[in-house]
Design the sequence.
């Protein structure tokens, strides 16, 4: 898949992974992995970018005697997910049209 | 590779960046490796799973704005031996002018792109304004009793005006194309500062 497209998609995937509850790095990777390939090194810049764009917030909490970063989605992040879904409704209907034409 | 080997190599690859950036990056990978080990992986497996320090550093570099990258490239110098410094000083007329040449080439590339766009617009705007100007000429010609000449002038002005309006749309495309080209050029220059390991 085109790298730029994948980057944009992964951004929203990460947001979706933390949509219902706070999550941490490794858990996010485990959640996304069944659907699309993602590695720690790709996830890191995504998390930083999302934080800079204020689509999520970060807090540090203690876990088993060490520190772990937890990510929480912001209202802006939720809106980003909804916008994305809207965009793709149109793409889906185009896809249906294209597929339908084969008779 | 052990966790500390991984983190140390990553740290040295990030040499030159702010302490904050380095600490955050190290903390992230430290956490990732620990989480995998908590899930049952051995230290070797966990470290292998998060990728190589080269990949990690590459991804971090790829996300850095150009300004930070330049600062890092300039500051990450190992101590140079005296003879190297002397050679650099002696050779400075050469490499300084080479750098100046490279910079001027880059600047001229941008200048070419945008002067083409500016000339497009110059044509479009001047053509589009011709009817107005020829109107002035028409009035002047009438004042001198030269109706035929005045009409001809006005007619030419209108033709040019029409052409100018038609030309406006290509001008918009020219700007979009020029902007896209400039961005690509900028990215290409930025990636001169990052190795290929960065992407993927």
Sequence:
């Amino acid at each position: 898949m085109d790298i730029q497209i994948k980057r944009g998609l992964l951004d929203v995937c990460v947001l979706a992974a933390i949509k219902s509850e706070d999550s941490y790095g490794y858990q996010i990777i485990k959640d996304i992995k069944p659907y699309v390939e993602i590695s720690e090194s790709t996830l890191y810049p995504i998390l930083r970018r999302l934080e800079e764009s204020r689509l999520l917030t970060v807090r540090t909490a203690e876990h088993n005697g060490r520190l772990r970063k937890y990510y929480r989605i912001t209202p802006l992040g939720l809106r980003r997910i909804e916008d994305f879904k809207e965009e793709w409704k149109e793409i889906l209907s185009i896809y249906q049209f294209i597929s339908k034409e084969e008779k | 590779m052990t966790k500390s080997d991984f983190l140390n190599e990553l740290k040295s690859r990030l040499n030159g960046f702010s302490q904050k950036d380095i600490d955050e990056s190290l903390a992230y990978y430290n956490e990732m490796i620990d989480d995998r080990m908590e899930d049952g992986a051995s230290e070797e497996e966990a470290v292998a799973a998060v990728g190589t320090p080269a990949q990690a550093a590459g991804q971090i570099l790829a996300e850095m704005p150009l300004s930070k990258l330049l600062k890092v490239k300039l500051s990450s110098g190992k101590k140079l031996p005296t003879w190297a410094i002397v050679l650099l000083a002696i050779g400075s007329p050469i490499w300084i002018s080479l750098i100046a040449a490279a910079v001027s080439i880059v600047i001229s590339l941008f200048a070419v792109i945008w002067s083409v766009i500016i000339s497009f617009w110059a044509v479009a705007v001047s053509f589009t304004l011709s009817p107005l100007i020829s109107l002035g000429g028409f009035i002047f010609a009438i004042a001198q009793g030269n109706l035929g000449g005045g009409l001809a002038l006005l007619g030419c002005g209108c033709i040019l005006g029409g052409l100018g309006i038609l030309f406006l749309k290509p001008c918009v495309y020219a700007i979009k194309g020029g902007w896209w080209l400039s961005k690509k050029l900028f990215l290409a220059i930025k990636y001169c500062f990052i190795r290929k390991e960065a992407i993927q």
